[in-house]
Structures are given as C-alpha cells and as structure tokens.
Amino acid sequence: MGAVTPLGNDAPSSWRAALAGESGVDFISSFDASGYPVR
Fold this sequence. Notes:
Layout: H1 11-19
C-alpha cells in the first residue's frame, strides 16, 4: 500500500516525516485565498 501526502510521496517517507515531527500544514501561497472564509 502506498501513500501520497504533504509529508512524502510514499508511505515510508511520509511515516519518517511524521515521526520526525514535520508538519504538512501551511498557509496557502499558490493562489490568492483572501476570498475564502477559511485559509
């Protein structure tokens, strides 16, 4: 089984990043999100 997540493109790298305390959450910077109530 695989996984594509903000932390990695496969399950092992995603798991390593999670164990290392990395976060896949950040502010939206690829487009203007000011028109949305939640960013």
